[in-house]
């Protein structure tokens, strides 16, 4: 972080130039000069003197609050870098969502570990935008998910389609809409449930909303909604309330075990491609091996459309 900002933070927290000078091993004249430069940079007065020492002005307090947040973010970045260094020791880092995990990742993992019993692997769950961000940052070698339509594509990540997925609408078995055909207008009368809700930090990756029908649907639905990143919590919400969960049709048999059923919607379902996003990796050989197992498992469970 900027040296002058570090010094400013220390002065505010200690409450005196002399104390900050001793803590930072910087002479008091140097600190005074640097604070003057900082005030000139922002065009404001940062400190005011009191009987107990010095304290920040209202402008200085605003700057301090942000500097403290910046310092925290910087320290978190250092920690995450250390975590990333540790994860680099894993032979393979794979991301997945709930649907892909059940359909093929779990089976591919079993085959991979049978073939490479000494290999280490890290599995991370999340929605496709979160996993895309993780892959861009170097935390994942590959991840499974729906194709992100309208994506602001970044270099170094390739999408490999594997099968086509229909978009269903799931509810508890005693929901008022169960047992007859319904249309989109009727769906819009009920609150929706979102599992693996898109964090606003990642929405920016979708450059062309008009090319992404699911994101258009999510933004168009203006009835109050419940969102969670936990499938277990989502199932609990769904069983207790008259919510509607838009989710891939492939999950129907798993939901059925929880007395959750798909609505009979008149309109044709939205069809998406599901596949692998593969990042450039120094471990390309072992990544290719895992992809081979995944393609074999997926072809057994859900043939590509």
Automatic annotation (TrEMBL):
<dbReference type="InterPro" id="IPR005119">
    <property type="entry name" value="LysR_subst-bd"/>
</dbReference>
<comment type="similarity">
    <text>Belongs to the LysR transcriptional regulatory family.</text>
</comment>
<dbReference type="GO" id="GO:0003700">
    <property type="term" value="F:DNA-binding transcription factor activity"/>
</dbReference>
<keyword id="KW-0804">Transcription</keyword>
<protein>
    <submittedName>
        <fullName>DNA-binding transcriptional LysR family regulator</fullName>
    </submittedName>
</protein>
<dbReference type="InterPro" id="IPR036390">
    <property type="entry name" value="WH_DNA-bd_sf"/>
</dbReference>
<dbReference type="Pfam" id="PF03466">
    <property type="entry name" value="LysR_substrate"/>
</dbReference>
<dbReference type="Pfam" id="PF00126">
    <property type="entry name" value="HTH_1"/>
</dbReference>
<feature type="domain" description="HTH lysR-type">
    <location>
        <begin position="1"/>
        <end position="57"/>
    </location>
</feature>
<keyword id="KW-0238">DNA-binding</keyword>
<dbReference type="InterPro" id="IPR000847">
    <property type="entry name" value="LysR_HTH_N"/>
</dbReference>
<dbReference type="GO" id="GO:0000976">
    <property type="term" value="F:transcription cis-regulatory region binding"/>
</dbReference>
<dbReference type="InterPro" id="IPR036388">
    <property type="entry name" value="WH-like_DNA-bd_sf"/>
</dbReference>
<keyword id="KW-0805">Transcription regulation</keyword>
